[in-house]
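Write out the bound-state structure for pyridoxal-5'-phosphate.
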Amino acid sequence: MNQIPERLAHVQERIHRAAMAAGRSPGEIMLLAVSKTKPASDVAAAFGAGQRAFGENYLQDALPKIRTLADKDIEWHFIGRLQSNKCADISRHFTWVHGIDSLKHAEQLSSHRPAELPPLQVCIQVNLSGEVTKGGVDPTEVEALALKVARLPRLRLRGLMTMPDPNARTTSRDAAFAGLRGLLESLRASGLDVDTLSMGMSDDMEAAIREGATIVRIGTDIFGPRD
Ligand SMILES: *Cc1c(COP(=O)(O)O)cnc(C)c1O
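---
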């Protein structure tokens, strides 16, 4: 039995409640449904229940779904690790990229963005848990990179993204969310027109919303566990 509409409604209700508890308007928070590894039929079920933005991590897994669902008004977000040989396809088939981690990848995405499409919306991924193995740039490098990315002609820098270590204690996870918000504020103080904090997943979306998330990326709680 397909429970996706019910799960989706429950996630929307959690977003609503967390926003109200934080004194925020639920309309400020976009739900990104993370459909990685799930079939196109699951995306179609969520789309049928009103969901429009979907997140994918793996290009090879995403492209067939994007093709199958091409007649639907879906906004695709790439949330995986970037690789140079994938940037051209990512830039053609997605509306957003959340994981900008280097000027090189940003330049590749910009140069391959088709002229007939609006600029690709991007977030810089920040590593706030201090682990070398995780993606994202060091907080001390964010501003310099942001100023350069913001000048690329075919990108539109929207803000910052982070993914705390899932094994971190809640205090360090909450500190990462608050740290991302502080970094966004300092980018604004430097004159950049940025508005997006992409943070919060199935297990920590309430904490992320409390700290100012404007996009929460939810997979498991909508589509069920991944194999
Ligand atoms: C898989 C993934 C998510 C969703 O995680 P869930 O715990 O399934 O909600 C969010 N963001 C990124 C970058 C992911 O890779």
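---
The CA atoms of residues 92 and 117 lie 8 Å apart.
The chain has a mean pLDDT of 96.
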